[in-house]
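Sharing a chain and its predicted structure for anyone who wants a worked example. Both blocks are below, sequence first, tokens second.
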Amino acid sequence: MVTVSYEEVRDILLKIPISLRKTVKEVTFDMSNSMQLICKTTFPNAVFVTDRFHVQKLISETVQEIREENENWKKCKKERKKYITQTYENGDSRKQLLARSRYLLFKPKNKWIEKQKERSTILFTEYPILEKVYNLST
């Protein structure tokens, strides 16, 4: 695998005349900070979109975590054992945190109620990539 530095990519793109770079309307990239910075510095008028593959991958990983938790719960129930799940300081389990956070992810921060602010702090601590995606979408 070949690694290319931020500077190398930026320098190559900066060889394109600014008049052409200003005509770029949209740039799709992965969720890396370096790609976001490259795009912002080289395509000043573009709208930036996180590519669908990376967002779907993130969602799939989160869904898999919930499935694993459900399977652990079912196994404990079958064995007549008490299922103990991690809970956060607001009382939510991981599953509850994710389920109850979906509405706040579609609202601007200034419209969050106190519970949503508290929940978002926990959510973004547990899933920093969700905060990144949220900030890109607002």
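Comments welcome. The chain has a mean pLDDT of 85.
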